[in-house]
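RESIDUES AND SHAPES:
===
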Amino acid sequence: MARGVPGGYGIWDNRRRKWWGDVYELCPDDLLTELNGDADYQKVTALLRRYRALKR
């Protein structure tokens, strides 16, 4: 699940009950849709890697 945090959006892991991954200033629509929908681990990981690479 994506939640707003100071400075952007973070990803909250309900199973571990902690933040997962980086904080993003803008949360891309396809990532947000996947997180709040099926939340397939492999798709989310691929999207995070893609946006992390664009961030650099």
In short: The longest strand covers residues 18-24.
